[in-house]
Amino acid sequence: MIISARTLYKLLLIAICGFTFLSACKKDGMGGELSDEEKNNDSFTRYEGKFLDELWKLNPDWATSVGYHKYDSVLVLPSEQKKKLTDFAKSNLDSLSHYPQNELSASNRMDFNLIQNYLRKTEWTYGSLKAYEWDPTSYNIIGGFAYILNEKYAPLSERLQSFYEKMAAIPAYYKDAQKLVKNPVPELTDLAIDQMTGGVDVIEKDFIDSLTKSSVPDPKQKLMRERAKASAAVIRNFTAWLKTIRSDKGRSFRLGKSLYDEKFNYEIESALTSQQMFNAAVERKKFLHKEMIKLSKELWPKYMGDKKIPSDSLAIVEDIIGALSLKHVEPAQFQSAIEKQIPKLSAFVKEKDLLTMDPSKPLVVRREPAYMAGVAGASVSSPGPYEKNGNTYYNVGSLDGWDKDRAESYLREYNDYTLQILNIHEAIPGHYTQLVYANKAPSLIKSVLGNGAMVEGWAVYGEEMMLDAGYGGNEPEMRLMWCKWNLRTVCNAILDYSVHAGSMTREQALKLLTKEAFQQQAEAEGKWKRVSVSSVQLTSYFTGYHEIKLLREEYKKKMADKYRLKEFNEKFLSYGSAPVKYIKEAMLTNEVEKPGDKKADQPEEKNEKKAPKAEEKKPAKTDSGAQ
Ligand code: ZN
Ligand code: ZN
User: Fold this and answer.
1) What is the pLDDT of residue 374?
2) Nearest ligand to the C-alpha atom of residue 327
3) What is the structure's pLDDT at 11?
4) Alpha carbon of 518 to ligand 1 centroid (Å)
5) Which band of pLDDT confidence, cut at 50, 70 and 90, is reported for residue 372?
6) Which residues contact residue 256 at a Cβ distance below 8 angstroms, ignoring those fewer than 6 apart?
7) 514: how many CB neighbours lie within 10 A of its CB?
8) C-alpha pair distances (Å), 380 with each of 149, 197, 423, 465, 501
9) For residue 492, which ligand has an atom nearest its CA?
10) Statement: residue 22 has pLDDT above 60
11) Predicted structure pTM score
12) pLDDT, position 619
């Protein structure tokens, strides 16, 4: 996943000025009136600016997380947010209907679709899904406070002041929340209690620690400390109240088929239905098993010598995977092993001419900052768009302080083979490369309402593309371990659908993950826990990947002997983090750039894609583990 720290507010101002400047230029340049088409595109762009500011006003926490800091000190009461967002959706769907969608530029048309989808999803969220009744984790507001405290976007005293003002609404917030929660899902109630019990440290401890280090005058500090104490007490009271209403007879954690289908449509924005996605995943599992059995039989003598080959073919695969997993670095070398791979990946992409890498945007590898620590693995952080000297970081976790068994089990999972796949997925040509391209796509909407399935799908697609180009020297070991990694993505999708749209039991799920996806018991149990507190997000990796591959096939056919992989990759990435189905529409229709399409002459805005909203509330700093 991608961590964001940005100054969207600044960007917005610059963007709006940029647009005004542009339309003025155009008038002068052409010495006449704007065409209807240009007028439509210009007014649509102005509408987008208005839409975003209103959006942030109603979602201050989300605004803070994308680096828009105008509303940092605001905490909106849940019932007020529900009412205002519902009204916002209704009135904006109406405004949107006045724009002639088909006469907008290709880029604006994608934005139109993204905004419309967001608004419809909002109506559905409050009107049909109603998670505010049964999911108490939606009232865990600590993430927003943690962001203000940890991200150094403004001087400490300023951020402490926002924190302090924001806390003022906490008592009213939880009073309101208690009125909304009804018959909550027990698993989600437990999760909310855990998260908030642990998270309250941010308010009670971290905030107060930062206060002592700040220049805030003593009398003011006293007031701030008192408010923090009172706020922590309110949060504890809320979790205590949750314990009293928690019941095993609460709503089932399974979403149910019809809500699942709808959520899938709004969040994945796929051309496929959830059933079609599931069928494709089942097919893919069969295909991978065949591949893996073939590769494992081939590798058997090399790793097992004369040992008798099991009669159960999946057991052969399990044994070979077990043997290959023993090849891994020592805990102390974990970070440096990752660092050493990055330049090798760049060199390979260049050598095989898979896509152009922008040399002016290097990836800086660093040790994970303390406040992100706790999870090993790796993640990408990108700077605010107008922080001229801002770097894109590859945060690498360390295994310092891990006990021996835990480190060993982790390193077997991230063995010599999968560690390379992890780097491909996170960095090159995965998330980091996609991010650099997305930053060149001139649309705030595409970065704010960006599509998680496209982002994750690209990273998964990138792994296979590298192996197909010969990365890893075409070794069967590398291919087998990638198959296992790919199978995880596939089984995530099967699991999610079977559990939420069907009735798969815990026992069946564990069997699928351990026997058919070759996962360790602990990993499988963790996955069961995750699927019982989330829905749809687990399908994003496979769905995006599957759709990109389908698109590439069609594109190949269309281009015939003019098809080049590099050109496909670059063109695909050029649209920003938009849903694959819209990119497909743009890539497969031979469209001449319309004059209103500002792609070429807009000031370069560096937008960042966002992880899907569902992930936002349960921050997972590392993507590798998050899959
Ligand atoms: Zn070992
Ligand atoms: Zn990822």
Assistant:
1) 55
2) 1
3) 29
4) 18
5) low
6) 500, 501
7) 16
8) 20, 28, 11, 20, 33
9) 2
10) no
11) 0.87
12) 31
The ligand with the least distance to the CA atom of 413 is 1
- Mention every residue, 6+ apart, whose C-beta is less than 8 A from residue 15: 49, 444, 603, 605
CA of 522 to the centre of ligand 1 (A): 17
Q: Which ligand is closest to the CA of 379, given by its number?
A: 2
Residue 380: nearest ligand to its CA? 2
State the Cα–Cα distance between residues 322 and 306, nearest whole angstrom. 17
Both structure tokens of 97:
């209907």
How much distance in Å is there from the Cα of 623 to the middle of ligand 2?
Answer: 5
Tokens of 24: 């003025």
Q: Is the pLDDT of residue 538 over 60?
A: yes
Sheet of 378-382: strand order equals 2-4, 378-382, 392-396, 363-367
Interval 436-485: pLDDT, tens: 888 777 678 888 888 999 999 999 999 999 999 999 999 999 999 999 99
Ligand at minimal distance from the CA of 377 is 2
Distance 402 CA to ligand 1 centre (A): 14
User: What's the 328 CA to ligand 1 centre distance in angstroms?
Assistant: 6
DSSP string spanning 370-382? GGGTT--SEEEEE
Cα-to-centroid distance, 622 and ligand 2 (Å)? 8
The CA distance from 342 to 426, in Å, is: 10
Nearest-ligand number for the alpha carbon of 415:
1
In terms of Cα–Cα distance, which of 544, 521, 563 is closest to 611? 544
Cα separation, 590 vs 582, in Å, equals 14
Nearest-ligand number for the alpha carbon of 3: 2
| Contact assessment for residue 42 and residue 474, using Cβ atoms and an 8 Å cutoff | no
**Partners of residue 272 on adjacent β-strands:** none
Give the closest ligand to the alpha carbon of residue 328.
Answer: 1
Residues 377-432: tens digit of each pLDDT? 778 877 654 344 567 888 888 888 888 988 898 899 899 999 999 999 999 999 99
Which token pair is 293?
A: 């059995």
| Ligand 2 center from residue 365 Cα (angstroms) | 17
Q: How far is the CA of 323 from the centre of ligand 1 (A)?
A: 10
Cβ neighbours of residue 507 closer than 8 Å, sequence gap 6 or more: none
3-state SS class at 595: coil
Q: Read off the pLDDT of residues 67-122 as tens digits, 9 standing for 90 and up.
A: 888 999 999 999 999 999 999 999 999 999 999 888 898 889 999 999 999 999 99
Q: Count the helix, strand and coil residues of the chain and give each as a percent rounded to the nearest 5.
A: 70, 5, 30
Are 452 and 611 contacting, i.e. CB atoms less than 8 angstroms apart?
yes
Instruction: Give 69 Cα–ligand 2 centroid separation in angstroms.
Output: 27
Q: How far apart are CA 573 and CA 582, in angstroms?
A: 12
432 CA to centre of ligand 2 in angstroms? 10
Please name the residue that has the structure tokens 């002459």: 601
